[in-house]
Design brief:
Layout (H helix, E strand, L loop, with lengths): L9 H12 L5 H20 L10 H15 L3 H20 L29 H14 L4 H12 L3 H5 L6 E2 L4 E4 L17 E4 L2 H14 L14 E2 L2 E2 L2 H11 L2 H4 L29 H14 L4 H8 L3 H8 L4 H15 L2
Antiparallel strand pairs: 1-2, 2-3, 4-5
Helix pairs in contact: 1-2, 5-6, 6-8, 6-11
Length: 340
């Protein structure tokens, strides 16, 4: 049976889509979708597409090429743009605005192992899903606290494990990151890596619950009390990596596998082989994702540079994955808010 499409203008379809998603996703996720779909609306205007019914697989491919060239996108940025478009088009199918299964014709680049690993990162959407899952099923566990700390503070793995209980100042809501090479916890940037890191109220509540109810009362071999502690002492760097890979497998926090694998026989479901899942990521990819998310949210570069302990040059070269138009739009938004 052929479905009769109902005419709808692109801007109206996007407006309705964002209106529905508003109650389903975090505000940051909604803003990301709005930003990405803004480019789609601009393309529709240029191509004089005034009705979503007129979209075809060929036209969507033309948009992909235009978007790649217009934004000077790398493969990872192009993929995230097209993934958001696919989700939107799939929703449009549900309201009979486009042909059924049109979303299957939205193409995006595949990311081979040879792609620059600096582009691998955990998206804000996925980070929210991972942490929500842990908050519901493993609240204030060591894994939950570690993952939340990495995402919230943008810390390196070594900085997180270097924290002691005394470095957490609950009343003033901050962490003190200290270089202690003589007792086994040097920082990557040594004394230059020392800093005070502000915490949200929610993060403090989680840390308070961890310290009060879950953290084992142990010391490490140097007589220090590690904040992230196991029954054997300070949490190891390799264990932090295991936590990241294990927790970011989609089959853990969703009902399926985005790679169409048989979950029962997939090697990636083995805890020791979690890195074999194509979607699992390392702690550094979490850090990169958190930094990129903050940049996309419009947080000033200097604030992120100081908080994450990364120079402006390195931030621009290795972490900033925004395309030039997104940067321009954010500057425009900032000027509109601050202009007298």
């Amino acid at each position: 049976m052929t479905t009769t499409l109902e005419p709808i203008e692109p801007y109206r379809a996007v407006e309705l889509y964002l209106g529905q998603r508003e109650t389903e996703v975090a505000a940051s996720t909604l803003q990301t979708h709005r930003s990405r779909l803004r480019a789609f609306l601009r393309w529709c205007e240029l191509e004089e597409i005034g009705n979503m019914n007129d979209l075809t697989g060929r036209k969507l491919h033309e948009f992909r090429i235009w978007r790649r060239n217009d934004g000077d996108l790398n493969r990872v940025s192009e993929k995230t743009q097209m993934q958001t478009l696919r989700v939107f088009i799939r929703w449009c199918e549900s309201i009979e605005a486009v042909d059924a299964d049109l979303s299957t014709k939205v193409q995006s680049p595949s990311l081979a192992t040879s792609d620059d690993s600096r582009d691998v990162m955990l998206s804000a959407d996925r980070a929210t899903a991972v942490l929500s899952y842990h908050e519901k099923y493993h609240y204030a566990s060591l894994e939950h606290v570690t993952l939340a700390l990495l995402w919230h503070t943008m810390m390196r793995r070594g900085s997180a494990r270097a924290l002691d209980v005394e470095d957490y100042h609950t009343d003033e809501r901050y962490l003190e990151v200290v270089h202690r090479p003589d007792t086994g916890t040097p920082l990557k940037n040594k004394a230059d890596g020392e800093r005070l890191v502000a915490l949200s109220e929610q993060m403090c509540t989680l840390l308070d619950d961890w310290v009060a109810d879950q953290r084992p009362s142990v010391e490490d071999e140097h007589g220090r009390q590690p904040l992230l502690a196991t029954l054997r002492g300070r949490l190891g760097a390799s264990t932090i990596t295991t936590y990241a890979y294990r927790a970011t497998r989609p089959c853990i926090y969703t009902d399926g596998c985005p790679h169409d694998r048989d979950i029962e026989s997939c090697d990636g479901t083995d805890v020791d082989l979690a890195s074999k899942c194509p979607s699992s990521v390392s702690p550094h990819a979490m850090r990169r994702g958190s930094i990129t998310h903050s940049l996309e949210e419009g947080t000033p570069d200097k604030v992120i540079s100081d908080r994450a302990n990364v120079s402006q040059g390195i931030l621009d070269k290795h972490y900033d994955r925004r395309d030039e138009r997104t940067k321009m739009e954010q500057r425009r938004d900032y000027l509109d808010r601050t202009r007298m």
